[in-house]
Prior knowledge:
- The chain is mainly α and 84 residues long.
- It has helices spanning 2-30, 32-47, 57-81.
- The N and C termini lie far apart (95 Å).
Amino acid sequence: MTNELSDLEREIEETRERLAATIDQLLHRSNPKTIVGREVAAIKGHYVDAETGEPRTDNILKTVGGVVGTVVVILVLRRLTRTD
């Protein structure tokens, strides 16, 4: 009986330690600084090749083209809707 009780206590302590480690991981992953760091890394990964460190000009040009296209559309719509 005593052996079973000590085994149970050991299992409870191990479970407690695993739970504490899981909670620490969740706190770290949900920290705003960690979230921002992950998002920045994801954006950098989209525009810079992780292996070579070289910029991914195709993705950069797509983004610049999208921004320029959006600005042009806005300017044209403003000009068309302007009433003088």
